[in-house]
């Protein structure tokens, strides 16, 4: 870092979100008329279900929605989130334990801000979502990576976590289903990890944004459901973006002990205040209305999951375990590196992603965005036809 940076050291040290960056690059190429197929951003291709959009329309006719509302969120929405948390995470919370945020991303950011003092360590199971280490560092914390590869289904063990624990460890980050790998911890694995965290007096930040997107009869068990003793030291992060195809509405939330949520509320009251009231009204409809559209989307993701994994495993040098959740396939591409394709010899997944984009017009996010090199992430939240076509292009390129 140069001393003469015009930016603060903190901001100069962070990079642009790699997922958003690759997505923007793919969209720019598409806008130029290039036939790019993008597996970059984790964003459902479906429209938000009609009854949710209708609720927003109705909200537009009510002038009280044009005013400031409580920074923590509308009371009816906090209640709906409390009910959802009891239903899906097995934790009976009061609305005072809920704060509504501008997407899951603000919930992640605020969770680290309210828990960390300078130098506090956060154990980050790796591969991790690209935003976590930056959000930890913005809160003056230290991310400590614990890596699990394809050979262990991208899931860390208690032994690995224990080996990473120091007397500065304050928080365990737990993400199941995982972005970027789609891995889902079993109830037994979740319990063992939760018990280890409780026994060592750690806090847990559990990102449950993909909790409703699981397949093969698997259910994502919340760490607080597996180990209720953690209720006093856990923050759950969640939102409607992925489950309800509502990425652009920007509605997320934190659930936690009342004193922690009060701290987050104080922060949010200076940062962003209430989130858009129209989006909050739509979210009430999402959480309390019919859930059939969610099931339809989940079934489509399930079909695409099986399709893409089958096709990815046909690419020479690619190895992709079957993910049980979210909408990502995380491919170990080590076997495809170091070979020459059209005069180019990629030795890292970053170089391979560049080659695939320039030669096959296919966008995927390289492993470097999520931890070590040697992997590519494919979001399969896109239509069946381009889904298969893009992977076939890669098969053709890497078979040459
Ligand atoms: N969370 C999604 C992803 O990982 C959306 C982009 C982002 O915010 O990172 O692709």
UniProtKB/TrEMBL annotation:
Family per similarity comment: Belongs to the class-I pyridoxal-phosphate-dependent aminotransferase family.
Keywords (A to Z) from UniProt: Aminotransferase, Pyridoxal phosphate, Transferase
Keyword field contains Nuclease: no
EC numbers, comma separated: 2.6.1.-
Domain (Aminotransferase class I/classII large): residue spans on this chain: 36-388
CC cofactor: pyridoxal 5'-phosphate
Statement: the UniProt record of this protein carries the keyword Transferase: yes
GO molecular function: pyridoxal phosphate binding; transaminase activity
BP terms from Gene Ontology: amino acid metabolic process
InterPro entries xrefs: Aminotransferase_I/II_large (IPR004839), AspAT/PAT-like (IPR050596), NHTrfase_class1_PyrdxlP-BS (IPR004838), PyrdxlP-dep_Trfase (IPR015424), PyrdxlP-dep_Trfase_major (IPR015421), PyrdxlP-dep_Trfase_small (IPR015422)
Protein name (database record): Aminotransferase
Lineage, highest ranks first: Bacteria, Bacillati, Actinomycetota, Actinomycetes, Micrococcales
């Amino acid at each position: 870092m140069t001393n003469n940076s015009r930016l603060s050291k903190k901001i100069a040290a962070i990079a642009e979100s790699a997922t958003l960056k690759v997505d923007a690059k793919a969209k720019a190429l598409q806008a130029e008329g290039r036939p790019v197929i993008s597996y970059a951003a984790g964003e459902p291709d479906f429209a938000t279900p009609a009854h949710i959009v209708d609720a927003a329309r109705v909200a537009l006719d009510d002038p009280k929605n044009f005013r400031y509302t409580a920074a923590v969120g509308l009371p009816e929405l906090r209640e709906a989130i409390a009910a959802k948390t009891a239903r899906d995470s097995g934790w009976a919370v009061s609305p005072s334990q809920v704060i509504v945020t501008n997407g899951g991303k603000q919930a992640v950011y605020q969770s680290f801000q309210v828990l960390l003092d300078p130098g506090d360590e956060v154990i980050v199971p790796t591969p991790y979502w690209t935003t976590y280490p930056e959000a930890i560092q913005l809160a003056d914390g230290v991310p400590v990576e614990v890596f699990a590869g394809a050979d262990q289904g991208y899931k860390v063990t208690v032994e690995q976590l224990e080996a990473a624990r120091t007397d500065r460890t304050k928080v365990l980050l737990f993400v199941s289903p995982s972005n970027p790998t789609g891995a889902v911890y079993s109830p037994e694995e979740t319990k063992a990890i939760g018990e280890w965290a409780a026994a060592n007096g750690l806090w847990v930040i559990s990102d449950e944004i993909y909790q409703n997107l699981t397949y093969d009869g698997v259910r994502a068990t919340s760490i607080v459901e597996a180990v209720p003793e953690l209720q006093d030291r856990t923050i759950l992060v969640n939102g409607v973006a992925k489950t309800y195809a509502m990425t652009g509405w920007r509605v997320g939330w934190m659930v936690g002990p009342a004193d922690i949520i009060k701290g987050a509320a104080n922060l949010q009251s200076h940062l962003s205040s209430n989130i858009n009231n129209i989006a909050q009204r739509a979210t009430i409809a999402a959480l309390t209305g019919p859930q059939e559209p969610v099931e339809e989307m989940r079934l489509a993701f399930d079909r695409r999951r099986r399709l893409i994994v089958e096709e990815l495993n046909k690419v020479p040098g690619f190895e992709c375990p079957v993910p049980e959740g979210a909408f990502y396939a995380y491919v170990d591409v080590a076997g495809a590196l170091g070979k020459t394709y059209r005069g180019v010899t990629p030795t890292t997944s970053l170089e391979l992603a560049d080659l695939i984009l320039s030669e096959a017009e296919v966008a995927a996010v390289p492993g470097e965005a999520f931890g070590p090199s040697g992997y590519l992430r494919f979001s399969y939240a896109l239509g069946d036809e381009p889904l298969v076509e893009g992977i076939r292009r890669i098969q053709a390129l890497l078979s040459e």
